[in-house]
Every structure is written in C-alpha cells, then in structure tokens.
Write a structure and sequence with these properties.
The chain is α+β, with helices and mostly antiparallel strands and about 250 residues long. The chain has a single domain, classed as Gcn5-related N-acetyltransferase (GNAT) (Aminopeptidase, 3-Layer(aba) Sandwich). Helices cover about 45% and strands about 20% of the residues. Strands 1-2-3-4-5-7-6 form a 7-stranded mixed beta sheet, sandwiched between helices. Strand 6 and strand 7 form a beta hairpin. This is N-acyl amino acid synthase FeeM catalytic core domain-containing protein. InterPro entries: Acyl_CoA_acyltransferase (IPR016181), FeeM_cat (IPR054597). It comes from Rhizobium jaguaris.
C-alpha cells in the first residue's frame, strides 16, 4: 500500500479532505475584523472564558505590526479564527508576554524567536460536527514557524487542553497551571521546539505542510503586486505529494 493510499484512509487523510474545502483569509478590513470580534465573543462566552471585565474582543495588539489575524472559512463561511504573533528579541509584543512575562523574556533574551498563537476561537455551531477545526485553525501557527524559521511555538492555554498540544505538537510544559488575573482562571504555558519537530509533525499530520508561496501569502507584508489576496488556498496536499515523490524516488 502506498503512502498516499494509507493517508487517504487515516485520520490525517480525513482532515486533509476537510482542508480541501477551507480557505484562509488574513484579516485586514474593519468589516472582517468586526466578524472576527463577534466570533471571538460567541466562542468565549459559550465556554465561559471571557476575560475579566471584557468590553470588546478587539485589543490593541490586534493591530501590532507583527500580528497576523486569520479567519478560517469553510465553504465560504467564517467558522474559526486565530491571531499569530511573530515575536523577536527586538519586538516582544504578544499575548503570552502579558501573561507569562518572565518566561517569554527568558526565551527572547537567549536570542530565540517565537510564534505566539492567541485569540483562538471556533464557532460553537460547528465545533461538535467538525472535529478537524482545532487542527486547521492552528495550522497558520505552523506555517508561520516555517516562514519565520522560529525556534518555538508557544501555547498559553487552559490546563485541560495541555494533553492535546503535547500529543499533536510535541509541546513541553514551561509553566505549570497557575491563576491569572487577566482571565480569572488557571492557564499553563507550553512550547513546541518547532525546528526539531518539523519532520515528524509533517510525517504524522501532512495537512500542516505548505508550499513557499502559501507561506508568503500568509505572512509577507510585501505581497507581489502590492495587493493582499482575498483568500489563501491551502497547499498541504501539493506539499504532501512532493514529499511522497521524494520518498518514492530516494527511498
């Protein structure tokens, strides 16, 4: 049995099939931003995780120069969203810095660069019927780690979700669960060694893979022609096919 036929019948293959009907949109317009804010509020309220005294689900760092907000559209309907920050020793703005400053600054003081996904939200109306959404919503964080050649992908999450990140992203615990004033509940900080895990992550979950031009469309501030594409079609299947061809040629 070939790798591609095995993939087709696997969990990863089923997610790849869902990805075939997904488009990513980098949120730049005020109208799209309002849609994202409504989705964040709807999702956070459904799970009782609204920040303390939250008045709006748009914050100042949404507009940071190294923040990238994505909407995930399934059959052209917004179903989830995530914000991805590229964090460097010279630019330390991100959600995790505000929650776990000592640990984030320690990584940056060591000269590392980080990807910090935040404002992860899935429409509750799709959550149960589409178990692929957590994976596909977090996919831009993996694309970003490759594009920026980052050392770590951070995850500030509720403790109940830690097992998922450790299993899927091979994440290490950086800070055990502790109460946070901003949210009024416990959070833990994890980190994935993005350069070290890339090979086995793509082998196990090829829907995280991407072609260089998709990575540029997602994260370049200097898009060819100067116009941001309305939607970005995932290239995971194409990238996985290329890996298969190399594997079959060289064994």
């Amino acid at each position: 049995m070939t790798y591609m036929s095995t993939l087709k019948n696997s969990f990863a293959g089923k997610l790849m099939e869902v990805l075939d009907h997904v488009e990513y949109r980098r949120i730049e317009s005020s109208e799209d931003m309002e849609d994202v804010a409504r989705l964040r509020y709807k999702a956070y309220k459904a799970h009782a995780v609204l920040p303390v005294a939250a008045k709006t689900m748009i914050d100042a760092i949404d507009f940071d120069e190294q923040a990238y907000i994505f909407g995930v559209y399934y059959y052209e309907e917004l179903v989830s969203t995530v914000r991805v920050h590229h964090v460097t020793p010279d630019h330390r703005v991100c959600q995790s810095t505000g929650i776990f400053p000592d640990e984030i600054h320690a990584f940056l003081d060591a000269g590392m660069t980080l990807i910090d996904p935040a404002r992860f939200a899935i429409d509750p109306d799709f959550e149960l019927e589409m178990p692929a959404l957590p994976y596909l919503t977090l996919r831009p964080a993996i694309v970003a780690a490759i594009y920026f050649n980052a050392d770590r992908v951070m995850q500030h999450i509720r403790p109940a979700h830690a097992a998922f990140y450790k299993r899927v992203f091979y994440a290490d615990t950086i800070v055990p669960p502790r109460m946070t004033e901003t949210y009024g509940f416990e959070l833990t900080l994890l980190a994935s060694r993005s350069k070290e895990i890339r090979g086995k992550l793509m082998e196990r979950y090829p829907f995280f893979d991407s072609e260089p031009y998709e990575r540029r469309m997602m994260f370049s501030r200097d898009v060819d022609g100067g116009t941001l594409p309305l939607t970005i079609l995932p290239t995971a299947r194409l990238a996985a096919g290329g890996r298969t061809a190399v594997r079959e040629q060289f064994g």
